[in-house]
Design brief:
Blueprint (H helix, E strand, L loop, with lengths): L5 E5 L2 E2 L5 E5 L2 E5 L7 E9 L3 E11 L25 H18 L22 E7 L2 E5 L6 E3 L10 H14 L14 E9 L2 E8 L7 H10 L4 E8 L11 E7 L3 E5 L2 E5 L9 H15 L6 E5 L5 H6 L5 E6 L2 H13 L5 E5 L2 H10 L6 E4 L8 H9 L4 E6 L2 H13 L2 E9 L9 E8 L3
The structure holds S-adenosyl-L-homocysteine.
Amino acid sequence: MRKNEEYEIEITGMTDEGSGVGRIDGMAVFVPYTIVGETVKIVVVKALKNYAHGKLLEILKPSPHRLKAECEVFYRCGGCQFWHMDYICELQIKQQKVEDCLRRIGGIDVPVSPVLGSEKQRRYRNKAQFPVSREGIGMYAPRSHCVVDTQDCLIQDERNVPIVQCVRDWMAEYRIPPYDEKAHDGVVRHIYTRSGKRGVVVCLVTRTKKLPFAEQLVQALRALNCGIIGVVQNVNGERTNVVLGRSSKTLYGQDWLNDDIGGVEFRISPHSFYQVNNAQTKVLYDTAAEFAQLRGGEVVWDLYCGIGTIGQYLAKSAGKIVGVEVVENAVENAEQNARNNGMSNAEYYCGTAESLAPKLLEKGLRPQVILLDPPRKGCEESLLRTAVATGAERIVYISCKPSTLARDLKILQELGYQTQKVQPVDLFPRTSHVETIVLLQRQDM
Ligand code: SAH
């Protein structure tokens, strides 16, 4: 196989990132925007030792699932991977991905339930982070930091359209320079918004502490009348891919957003994690409730608890909720949310789950049920060992990354917890990401 050569191939599989996979002379070629079963003409754009990357030139035999992408920037933007197929096909791919990871990495052969799909496949996100650069404002191109200028992102809340335009106009009028990543120069780095039923909080991430013409920006944003309840400046002076810096200043209104999941109220600060798809979060948490099987009276550990969402969603059926979270703001939110929800049976600890879990055990807070909801990299092995040492009857593991989930389930399985149910939930339509919730049961020796 040679670079710049054209080939006709059949797509026979998918990568975790959502590219189709075909073969040339037995070697795997990854081709974005293709679907299993299609015959396509490609050009090899990169040939490595064990695999290659191809670019789709022509679809010779299309899949019956193929659709014309609704999004105008889909083939340039790195945000979504699946606008070129129908939703049934997308859900099948996600189920397969979870199955493959569990089998390959975890050695787990439990049936994976069909993915619970999202009613909305557009406009479902409540959090947007648009990078601002000299090339424009929008989204990063695949595997790069080049910004694709976009007027609208179809998975985002519609209110972002006038907001982003307003920031563009304000930058043009007052000659506010966009951030230049290479030179680490310029002012505006990201437009970050959180939106919900109760309004929108707009956060402008800047490199510099000084924000010229901030007053004019606030006025222009408020004049949009699109439900903005707060405008915040966050300062990030570091050379980093992390979006938010440490310090923030509220320029107008409030820096938090209130939202509810199935009637349970939450306050969310800009630094706190909150699931991006509200309707599907309810589906996820209802599944968590089903898997937790609380009868009342149990001590439940809610590890990686964020602003306390899952634990508080289940709190009325539990004896006590013990939450652990590393982000200080999120813990403050969790405590306040518990008070606002009238829950006196929830307590929160700030620190890493791996360092605090052994201390909770020493304190005598032995759980019957443990909820694990770590970030993409999964759990530290030491935390899994502590979880097992508690002797909890059930562990409910929520994961946004099937490969690390599979790795952790394998460890838990070896330590005596059997995977009983695996339920993927689609929180991220049109992207290759999928959330999975797993029930593990202690095997009595
Ligand atoms: N359960 C919450 C949050 C899940 S996201 C919800 O459903 O909304 C994962 C959370 O884990 C984030 O809030 C992140 O700040 C936190 N986190 C990351 N690493 C951690 C660690 N080592 N210990 C505890 N919390 C951690």
